[in-house]
Design brief:
This is Methyltransferase domain-containing protein. Pfam families: Methyltransf_32 (PF13679). Helix 14 (about 295-315) packs across helix 16. The chain has a domain at about 295-380. It has 17 helices and seven strands. Strands 3-2-1-4-5-7-6 form a seven-stranded mixed β-sheet, sandwiched between helices. It is an alpha/beta fold.
Length: about 425
């Protein structure tokens, strides 16, 4: 049975409330898209600088070494940037519902401590179940399992990998689990563990995008922890068609979609004026509360070098167009800028002349990086709003399919910034 099931009138009121909030978020995102729907790498100046002069002045007043601290959380972004943005809006006679920028607090409920009492594994077993799983990932699995609605139905673990979540549910909750995974080697590894521990867990090697192989049933609880992009969207679509009574999932990597642009789910999102590219969908993910100072230093170096090479290739090719280059190995960042440019030029088949002034282009990259960091900083002011727009698109879609839906955090941001849990019940 669902926890605290909503009465019909409560269900209708909740659905109306979520739909109304979605419309407010949508309005703000449409109004502000010049500030967040940008590609910083392509900018040669602040693209909104003329329209928002006080905001432009404010971001340039922030010291380079302070930007990461400002960018670390929504509260610091609001404290530093909102006063200047408010002044610009007042000067232009515009009214935006800027209180929604702090949407993180009121929308997502905190983890339900009453649900965290699932049977802890004894130390003698814990080391086996958590073996090979990084500490924070194990915390995520444990917290997610602890927030699941208690019911007697079997569990379908969607995009299971080796079935780490499913095996914990099978052991700690004493429930039968079917783990769906398309990679045969992962299924075999998961099966070996389940057999070794005599767990009620079976693996099915199948494609999550193949409806006939989905294994979704009515009397079932479908779960997915950080299923990326279209994978969790496919889950809720297929589960809705199958009439699956309980769905629990944590969205991740919204940009990993098959279509070039986002395909809205709910009626409200389908009627929106927003058109979201894969690049736009990466905005909510541009936050790291976990990266250390060394990782940040390497990331800044990589961006500066990429921009420096971009300035070089534009001059060489006589083309004012950004040229993306593939991902690089971290070891390449321990070399020098010259070697990086030679590698990038070879990779993209860009012939380089002799006697290049690499130092000039390296400095050009650093200068452009100062700009891109400030373009991104302002865009990040809206990342929580966009993520909640995406979350509510899923919530409203499920409500339209007749589900009672809750949205809450299943763990702290210290463990993962992607800590939203959507549970839908019939």
């Amino acid at each position: 049975m669902p926890n605290n099931p909503l009465k019909p009138q409560q269900k209708t009121a909740h659905k109306t409330q979520q739909s109304a909030l979605f419309k407010r978020l949508d309005t703000l995102l449409v109004q502000s898209r010049d500030l967040w729907q940008v590609k910083a790498f392509e900018c040669t100046s602040l693209p909104w600088g003329t329209q928002f002069p006080r905001l432009a002045e404010r971001v340039w007043s922030i010291a380079d070494e302070d930007i990461d601290d400002v960018d670390r959380g929504q509260s610091s972004l609001i404290a530093v940037l909102l006063p200047s943005l408010t002044e610009d809006l007042m000067e232009a006679g515009l009214e935006w519902e800027l209180s929604l920028l702090d949407i993180t607090s009121p929308l997502c409920g905190e983890p339900d401590k009453a649900l965290l009492s699932h049977r802890e594994l004894p130390d003698s077993e814990l080391s086996h179940f958590s073996a090979g799983i990084k500490g924070r990932k194990w915390e995520q699995i444990n917290a997610f399992a602890g927030q699941l609605t208690r019911c007697d139905s079997d569990v379908l673990e969607w995009c299971a990998g080796k079935g780490h979540l499913g095996r914990l549910i099978a052991k700690a909750h004493n429930r039968s689990v079917v783990s769906l995974e398309w990679q045969q080697s992962l299924c075999e590894a998961g099966t070996d563990f389940a057999e070794q521990w005599h767990l009620p867990q079976t693996f099915i090697c199948a494609d999550a995008f193949a409806a006939k192989q989905s294994q979704l049933k009515v009397n079932q609880q479908a779960v997915a922890l950080h299923a990326c992009g279209d994978l969790h969207v496919e889950l809720i679509r297929l589960a809705s068609v199958a009439g699956t009574r309980n769905i629990a999932f944590s969205p991740c990597c919204y940009h990993l979609i098959r279509a070039k642009e986002y395909e809205a789910l709910s009626r409200g999102a389908r009627n929106s004026a927003l058109s979201l590219s894969r690049h736009d969908l990466q905005l909510p993910l541009q936050q790291s509360t976990i990266a250390g100072s060394k990782q940040q230093e390497l990331r800044h170096r990589e961006i500066a070098w990429r921009l420096g090479f971009d300035s070089l290739q534009r001059e060489v090719r006589g083309c004012e167009k950004y040229l993306p280059i593939p991902s690089i190995k971290q070891s390449q960042l321990s070399g020098d800028f010259n070697a990086f440019c030679l590698w990038a030029a070879q990779t993209k088949s860009v012939p380089l002349p002799e006697n290049i002034n690499f130092e000039y282009f390296e400095q050009s990259g650093l200068k452009r990086q100062r700009l891109t960091r400030r373009v991104d900083l302002v865009a990040h002011l809206f990342r929580a709003v966009l993520e909640h727009w995406l979350l509510l698109d899923r919530v409203c879609f499920l409500e339209e399919q007749g589900y009672s839906v809750s949205l809450r955090k299943f763990c702290s941001e210290r463990v993962t910034p992607r800590n939203s849990l959507i549970q839908a019940e019939k």
